[in-house]
């Protein structure tokens, strides 16, 4: 089997320590852990809980939109629902998702390290996340916020009723948690690679995580100060965003989007890293164009910082600035497209193995492409005037964030689940869930492209009657999607007790994380791995030959 | 032990630059007043970064991170001003 | 460099640990550049929009205090460098002395700042409900003073944190048996302190020296 997949370093010798899950089992040992793997689990549980909150808000929204009058909730409540949905899903689910769960767990192991550079800072980042989340949940329970997740002034700073400052405080605190995570990853990648692991031998997931960390570290501080400024203006009635006193609301938007556009790249880059890992393993082939994929991650991180004005085309921003941002927005699509081409080229003449992670990744490539292409529509100034603030925009970013990133997160969870838990999930049920998610997703969001094009505005609790059919389809899709999301929750839990024992490398993959036990011991490795091979040293030809030999064995006697 | 002389000289230079900054503010240089003041600040900052923060002797990776922060600030200022400065009055 | 802090389990050796810590601090300082930078953007936008008002408002800042404070911070950076040097050469008394002097400079800065703020509040320049400004549109002038109190306030908060850390480190330097354990930490605190100085170096002309020649 090793002809098919040559691991980057020699497999670890037999390890006789207890694994990280059982080595200590007091509550204190979990809540005060500095083990990156346990911190990853803590994050996994927390973000799942937040996903349920954000999902509940979405459910209520979609139920309300079954009828044009929107009779389920009042307009104020609806405004609160989409605000909660946005805030929770962006800051408390998607931004942490792959980085803090999969990244925390797998990144140090991919580098051959025993932990991240600053383990206590890692734990602190989780507490900052949870602390911020507590403020946000309190703001929701105490009555909610109706400004939208974008907190535009002067509505948020002057006129809104609701717990804006509490919500902003929650995001502020959680933001520092993500800065801490990004800082930790940057230093870890620079300083803690195993002997022989040069930059150009790194798995592409590491390149993605590094690029994401750069964005986290440079963009989030601006969000922090912007929220402070908005809160001060709201609390004291003086500030710089209120036009009544000579301020400029667009200053808020520039500051907000300077963070929030790169934030969407924080939300997609890690998923792209996961896709690279899974595609290589399940096509038994090295990712095509390694350097292109690696450096396109860096390019996305850099270019992502110069396009934020495309969220402000109709805000009364200068038209010349609009043109500049429009051109730059077209440019930023190029590195993403490069990745999609390279992933597709990886599949060509690969030896395809249709396992659940691979299904999710195929879904990602298709849906992300649709989402990305529709982004180009929106980047065109003139077209954006028609489409802005319609359901087209909503469909666009949900295709990327849900069709793309959430699928990548689920794919990554399935791929690394054996390593995390030592167990396999049930394959047939998992494939079925993936199909539910894919079908449900498309039924939910494709009609929204049409709705947006036809002119249905976003953030409206009621709509013109001619849009009802498409809205009903969308809500129907959402119910299928919901089933698809609950199934993995159930069977992952089931697998902890009843799943097949996984062994070190159930996928016969090449990364360093697969050379050690599943689940790993507390310090990951018994001996420091020495890297001699490039990443993705798969041989698709050998894989096909092995499969052919196996098929020949299984043929009945009268055929042979 | 290394001599403290370089540090003394840098401190001296910083004070000289401080005197220049304040004095220049009292001279009418028209539109150049602000750029001059900012250039002097940049020189002071560079001296502090290179000598007090030991960046002169540190590895290139540190150099990159020092520049990255300021470069990114530059991006934020430049592109935002591309809006504010090109609006119709 | 002799052995310093015990090497944490995730690192191979002390050198890797120190390099990682230093890089980590620089990454943190990069985040601080963006954090302060957003406020500098706000300042820039309104200075370009209301140059006359900013000019007039700036004349009400107390340039003597501002200049002295700049000098104090520059001197404090000098003594901080000496403290870092003392830590590196394991000279305990010198380390404690320079940490304390640096902290005292920081306190002097804050005291002068407090005095300055008090003066400005008495003149009705605090951007609250009692703000008064006769020479120009009060709303716009109020924005200058809002930015002034905000930016110098956030800066003063950073100075305060620095002073507290200096005090803690001076105590550790007094009490610890193994001085070499402090070498990296003092170095990193130095980086932080110099950064806070640099922020002030840029802030000073923008607040106090908008136009002193008219």
**Dominant shape of chain A:** globular
Instruction: Kindly report how far apart the N and C termini of chain B lie.
Output: 62 Å
SS elements, strand count of chain B: 0
Q: Which structural class should the secondary elements of chain B be placed in?
A: mainly alpha
Look at the structure and name the CATH superfamily of chain A. Cytochrome c oxidase-like, subunit I domain
Name of the CATH class of chain A: Mainly Alpha
Tally of separate domains of chain A:
1
What about the largest sheet of chain A?
Answer: 2 strands, antiparallel
CATH 2nd-level architecture of chain A: Up-down Bundle
**Poorly predicted residue ranges of chain A:** none
Could you report the average pLDDT of chain B, rounded to the nearest whole number?
91
Write down the secondary-structure element order of chain A: EHHHHHHHHHHHHHHHHEH
Q: Indicate the radius of gyration of chain A in whole angstroms.
A: 24 Å
Provide the descriptors you would attach to this structure in a database record.
heterotrimer, A: 560 residues, mainly alpha, Cytochrome C Oxidase, Chain A, two-stranded antiparallel ribbon, 66% helix, 1% strand, C: 214 residues, Four Helix Bundle (Hemerythrin (Met), subunit A), 6 helices, elongated
What this model shows, in words?
- The complex is a heterotrimer of chains A (560), B (89) and C (214).
- Chain A is mainly α and 560 residues long.
- Chain A has one domain: Cytochrome c oxidase-like, subunit I domain (Cytochrome C Oxidase, Chain A), CATH 1.20.210.10.
- Chain A is 66% helix and 1% strand.
- Chain A has a two-stranded antiparallel ribbon.
- Chain B is built from three helices and no strands.
- Chain C is built from six helices and no strands.
- In chain C, helix 1 packs parallel to helix 6 and helix 4 runs antiparallel to helix 5.
- Chain C is elongated.
- The mean pLDDT of chain C is 93.
- At the B-C interface, helix 1, helix 2 and helix 3 of B face helix 1, helix 3 and helix 6 of C.
């Amino acid at each position: 089997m090793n002809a098919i997949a040559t691991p980057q370093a020699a497999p670890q010798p037999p390890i006789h320590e207890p694994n990280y899950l059982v080595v200590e089992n007091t509550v204190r040992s979990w809540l005060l852990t500095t083990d990156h793997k346990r911190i990853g689990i803590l994050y996994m549980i927390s973000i799942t809980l937040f996903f349920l909150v954000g999902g509940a808000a979405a459910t209520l929204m979609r139920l309300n939109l079954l009828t044009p009058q929107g009779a389920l909730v009042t307009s104020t409540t609806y405004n609160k629902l989409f605000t909660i949905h946005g805030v929770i899903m962006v800051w408390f689910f998607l931004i942490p998702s792959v980085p803090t769960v999969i990244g925390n767990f797998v990144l140090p192991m991919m580098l051959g390290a025993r932990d991240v550079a600053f383990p206590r800072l890692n734990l602190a980042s989780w507490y900052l996340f949870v602390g911020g989340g507590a403020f946000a949940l309190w703001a929701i329970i105490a009555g909610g916020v109706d400004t939208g997740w974008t907190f535009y002034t002067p509505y948020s700073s002057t006129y809104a009723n609701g717990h804006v400052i509490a919500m902003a405080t929650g995001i502020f605190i959680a933001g520092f948690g993500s800065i801490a995570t990004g800082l930790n990853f940057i230093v870890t990648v620079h300083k803690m690679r195993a002997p022989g692991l040069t930059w150009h031998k790194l798995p592409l997931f590491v390149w993605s995580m590094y690029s994401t960390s750069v964005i986290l570290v440079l963009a989030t501080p601006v969000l922090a100060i912007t929220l402070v400024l908005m809160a001060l203006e709201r609390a004291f009635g003086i500030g710089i965003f209120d036009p009544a006193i000579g301020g400029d609301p667009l200053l808020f938007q520039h500051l907000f989007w300077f963070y929030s556009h790169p934030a969407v790249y924080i939300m997609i880059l890690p998923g792209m890293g996961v896709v690279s890992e899974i595609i290589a393993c399940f096509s038994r082939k090295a990712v095509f164009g390694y350097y292109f994929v690696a450096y396109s991650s860096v390019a996305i991180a850099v270019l992502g910082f110069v396009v934020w004005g495309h969220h402000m085309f109709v805000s009364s921003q200068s038209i010349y600035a609009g043109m500049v941002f429009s051109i730059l927005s077209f440019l930023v699509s190029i590195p993403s497209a490069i990745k999609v081409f390279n992933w597709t080229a990886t599949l060509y003449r690969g030896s395809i193995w249709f396992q659940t992670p691979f299904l999710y990744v195929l879904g990602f490539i298709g849906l992300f492409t649709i989402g990305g292409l529709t982004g180009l529509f929106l980047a065109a100034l003139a077209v954006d005037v028609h489409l802005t603030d319609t359901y087209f925009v909503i469909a666009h970013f949900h295709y990327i964030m849900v069709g793309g990133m959430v699928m990548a997160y689920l794919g990554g969870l399935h791929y690394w689940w054996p390593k995390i838990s030592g167990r396999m999930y049930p394959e047939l049920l998992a494939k079925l869930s993936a199909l539910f998610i894919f079908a449900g997703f498309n039924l939910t969001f494709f009609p929204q492209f049409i709705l947006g094009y036809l002119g249905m505005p976003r953030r409206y609790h009621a709509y013109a009657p001619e849009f009802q059919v498409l809205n009903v389809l969308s809500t129907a899709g959402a119910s299928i999607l919901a089933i698809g999301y609950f199934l993995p929750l159930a069977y992952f839990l089931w697998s902890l007790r009843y799943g097949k024992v996984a062994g070190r490398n159930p996928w016969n993959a090449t990364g360093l994380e697969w050379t050690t036990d599943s689940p790993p011991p507390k310090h990951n490795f018994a001996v420091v791995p020495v890297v001699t091979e490039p990443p993705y040293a798969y041989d698709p030809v050998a894989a096909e030959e092995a499969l052919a030999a196996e098929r020949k064995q299984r043929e009945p006697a009268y055929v042979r | 032990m290394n001599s403290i002389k370089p540090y003394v000289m840098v401190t001296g230079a910083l004070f000289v630059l401080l005197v220049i900054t304040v004095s220049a503010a009292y001279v009418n240089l028209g539109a150049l007043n602000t750029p001059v003041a900012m250039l002097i600040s940049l020189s002071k900052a560079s001296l502090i970064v290179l000598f007090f923060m030991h960046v002169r002797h540190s590895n290139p990776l540190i150099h990159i991170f020092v520049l990255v922060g300021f470069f990114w600030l530059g991006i934020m200022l430049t592109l935002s001003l591309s809006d504010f400065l090109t609006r119709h009055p | 460099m002799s052995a310093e802090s015990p090497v944490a389990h995730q690192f191979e050796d002390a050198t890797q640990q120190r390099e990682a810590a230093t890089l980590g601090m620089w990454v943190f300082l990069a985040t601080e550049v963006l954090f302060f930078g957003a406020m500098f953007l706000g300042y820039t936008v309104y200075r370009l929009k209301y140059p006359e008002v900013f000019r007039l408002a700036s004349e009400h800042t107390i340039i003597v205090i501002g200049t002295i404070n700049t000098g104090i911070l520059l001197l404090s950076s000098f003594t901080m460098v000496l403290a870092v040097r003392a830590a590196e050469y394991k000279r305990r008394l010198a380390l404690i002395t320079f940490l304390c002097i640096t902290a005292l400079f920081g306190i002097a800065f804050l005291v002068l700042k407090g005095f300055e703020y008090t003066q400005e509040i008495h003149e009705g320049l605090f951007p609250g409900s009692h703000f008064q400004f006769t020479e120009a549109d009060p709303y716009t002038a109020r924005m200058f003073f809002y930015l002034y109190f905000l930016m110098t306030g956030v800066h003063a908060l950073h100075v305060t944190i620095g002073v507290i850390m200096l005090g803690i480190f001076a105590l550790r330097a007094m009490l610890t048996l193994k001085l070499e354990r402090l070498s990296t930490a003092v170095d990193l605190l130095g980086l932080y302190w110099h950064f806070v100085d640099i922020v002030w170096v840029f802030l000073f002309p923008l607040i106090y020296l908008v136009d002193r020649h008219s």
